[in-house]
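User: Can you predict the 3D structure for this chain?
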Amino acid sequence: MAHTPQPVPVSRTDFLGRIFPWLLPVLLFFSITGTSRFAAVVLAVVAILFSIGRVPVANLRNRLSPLTAAVFFYSLICLLSGLWCHFGLYAARESAKTLAAFSIFALVLMRVKREHLRGLLKTLDGVLAVIALLCIDASSLQLLSRGFSWVMALFKAGYPLETMGYETGVRITGIFSNANVSAGLLAFGLILSLYLIRTEESPRMRLVLFVGLGVESLAFFLSFSMGAMASFGLTCLVYLLCSGKGNRLSLLILMLESVLATVICSFAATPFLGISGAAALVPILLSLLCGPAIWVLDCFAGQPLLAVLKGRDKAVAVAAVVLVALTVCYGVLAYNLTGDLTLESGVTISRAIYPAAGEYTLTCDGDDVQAVIYSQTEAELMMHTNTVLYEGSLSDAAFTVPEGSRVVWFQLSGTGTVRSVTLSDGTQLPLGYTLLPEFAANRIQGLWANQNFIQRLVFFRDGLKLWQASPLIGWGVGGVEGQLTSVQSFYYESKYIHNQFIQIMDEAGVLGLAAFVGMLGSAVWMLTRRRKDADPLLAMLAACLTMMVAHSMTEVVWSTQIYQSAVFVLFAVLILWNSSPEAAPVSKPAKGRVAAGAAWGLIGIFALLLSGHLLAAGQLEKLDPNNISSEEFLSSLETMDRLDVYDDSDYKVNLMANYLRFDTAVGRGMAEKYAQQLLATEEYDACYQVANYYYLPLRDFTGFYDAIQTGLLQERSNPDAWNSAFHLFQNIFDALDADDMEAYIAGIVSTGALMDETNETLMAPITLDEGNAALLACARTLQDVPGEAAQGVLASLLSE
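Assistant: Here is the predicted structure, written as structure tokens:
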């Protein structure tokens, strides 16, 4: 016989349950901004503490779903993959992000009541509005962000003020120093604000929500991430389609009001970004006024217009078509309508054109300014390099555009007004954009030959190469940052592939991809189950899911804690919405305990592993070999090695080198054990240390050069790694005898041959510095020269 679930009684002793609602805003804010390993451990401990008890366990039992399981398994695979990554420090940093995100996910599921779901959404929206305000402040006054930076430093989360702020003439970078990530996060705030405003009955609360919408909207627009904007455009379309026939018009009007007020405020705020003094307060004031401006538009224009159009479906359809046409026309005009350009001292303006190959002169009207003119081929766009065609006075410019050029850039600087610049073939250089703020005009330059977009294609290509090298389990989280140089066609630094699907394939192979797709698929399935529901929350969550997927195709957002934590909270919202009202199920109560145990286990185990990593690192800093015996020193290092399952290379290097000093069979055996463990990572720094501190003291030159060359394969595209290897070859020369010369020279020559072989596959070949190049060239001439003679020649070379 079925039993009717009974409501969960609120325990009078559940003190943590009573204070949790007051702490939730702080915890949400901390989960997004507490971007350090220490902060992740703190959050994990808080999550376990607040989720212990009969009420949270019963809540979790009531919220078990495919999406709950999918988030758990995705997090589990990501965290496990950090244990097989060969780049321990990178793995620890990336694992901390997933730990923080899963901790807040579990905490929300186990503590937030379903009846308080709207309060959770308001809290998340408020947190995102505060972050938006901090991003604007970081790019202007830096008053609020200064205090924020100080507080986060207490949790070892670095937010240095000098890295925040304003990319001059382009966009704000915010507290995260990354406009693309900030924009991706704030897009969720915009979606939440639109939903909450349209479903709020209290006039006062609506005004508060409008203020939040204005701050988020201005910060999003000033970030001017083209990838985020394109994704958000698609998101808005999905939001409108899913809103239902009777709700689309009001949502569309609110969106348009937001755009209008935001664009006006952005024009007014732009001149005051990146400056100091009292005027830097203007962008902050405008961010707080943007929302009330939207509210005024809504009250005195939007609502009356909605009343007029209500029930007139044909008129609305015609108006929508006209509106789309006007938007397209505005975009075309904004891109093409240009006028005079006024330059100020210390400011450089960039403009792009696409001329055919050939010789050009210029005709200029206006004040004479300075110009740097350069072109980029497709290869140069990939590598972020260029060919300078001309430098000097703009009026005297004459240059030749090379074959294969995709774009030609003009960098203009000086003081004065330029009215027109005409190339000898009649091409007009765009100058001042009448309908766009200057930062937007700068961002759209080179739109048809955008090096950021083209380099993303390079990321995708290299990411697929990396996956093919380890298709089943990948390289572990953090592995991309270390292993990417092994497959690059030219050297560049990147922690991520800028596509989450390829990223997870590289980190956890097809296993990770299945978990990621399963998580997204579970979210879609839960939404489609409610597709006939009239609740406007459905459309809002569908929009959020669209933004998650669309932006993850071209950006790094999923691999950041700030984004992943917000996404996991939104997944928790979807689960809460689909759960039944709080009840204590009579049947199968063990399911709740098992699920809670799994969550506690996942959080607790990896919090302990990260704690061991941090503890060992702290002990290594304090370890002083001069104040303890050799045995105590080695014992301490072995303890640290066991504690740190992530970044244990420093301990192993020290153990290897110190055991080798004990000229005993046991000492040599232990040194060899640690040397082999380091070599097994095939990581350049580890192999370099083994070569220098193990094989070299043993005079084992075969092992020495094999170790170096094994490591160089991991850093094959990095010129600095090759040069550091050859610098090591120079540094060890003085410690060698004449009998060592044959092996020494042979190793240098074989390393040079490996470099030549590598260069055959690189777009930007490895180039040695002058001293290293001379050493390699000399070694190649000495391959058949006797030891003493070769030593004399090399000594003369290296003493210069």
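The first helix runs from residue 15 to 33. DSSP finds 30 helices and twelve strands in the chain.
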